[in-house]
Amino acid sequence: MNYKEATKFLFNSLPMYQRIGKIAYKKDIGNIKIACEEFNQPQKNFKSIHVGGTNGKGSVSHMLASVLQEKKLKVGLYTSPHLKDFRERIKINGKPISKEKVVEFVKNNFDFFKKNKLSFFEMTVLLSFLHFSNEKVDIAIIEVGLGGRLDSTNIINPILSVITNISLEHTNLLGNSIEKIAQEKGGIIKRNTPIIIGRKNKISDSVFNKIASEKKSKIFFSDKKNNYTTDLNGDFQIENISTAEKTFQVLNEEKILNISPIEISKGLNRVIKNTGLRGRFEITSLKPKTIFDIGHNIDAINKSINQINKLSYENLHVVIGFVNDKNLEKILSLLPKNAYYYFCKPNIPRGLCEKELLKTSQKFSLNGNCFNSSSVAFEKANEKANESDIIFVGGSTFLVAELI
What we know:
Largest sheet: 8 strands, mixed
Distance between the termini: 29 Å
Shape: globular
Number of helices: 17
Structural class: alpha/beta
Helix content: 40-55%
């Protein structure tokens, strides 16, 4: 078995929510418990910080990892989804897990995976735990995949948990209200374990306070102070910086870890260098200015649009596509009308048909055309744009992954 065959098994043989959607979502975490028992509870062999939330959890996870690397710790980082290579999900001090270890993991445990019907995500989480345990990391930053309460990562007992913010997403799975989604996200709050909340919201805060009280866990809210900067683009990173800053403040005050202001400053300004994070309002070209952003829900897309509105440009070209479970009309109503759109379908089963996207967009007076592939759409945008224009690629993590 080679790497291509191993990842093909991971991607295609078993349910993967990111590709096929709701039918892959599991209503319990029994399988990951069985798997971790089989492998002698690897998640108990290292300290961890658990990071959930609607938006910003990926950026915050990378910020935390970068700062802890500046402290000269051996830092594991588990995130999802990946953009170009599966191995991006599992890193130690910015270095992805080796292809050989991925192959070994699948080859040696193939029968166990088939017998117990582990999902893609369950296998991936297990691999990260085993890798971090075997490599004896000092600490691992573990990003929640979907929701929180029933997410496979929720088997860990972290030294601290973080919930960045709450907004409506995956309502077909997590609930159709802020309160219900907060209940799911708040499921990562552990007994006697500090919890950081990044963005205040009256409805979700009451849910988190109740859960924290029941679990006898100290709860802390970001105070929106910004004493630091970051190398990540976009004013929306200000909120993520505040969340990360509050996390380190609590780690220090609770005498869990001791992180200096210099380490925080260096780490926040070396996130890309230390962790390899991509796709967060990433500028890949200046003439025309070309921007890739993985934001794919209402809150994230609205922030990207606000950021674009602060830039100077002659014409705006938007290469955009979505998966089929989004609140399409609400998102389209937010998009600027002074742009030309290149509608396309992310190349996954969940991808929304580009013709349907074009048809719906016309209700909102969005000018553009549809294309049968993202590469053709991006090529046409580059042909039409001049040096003083902006090309923005977004709407879906998978679309960005195809083109970045």
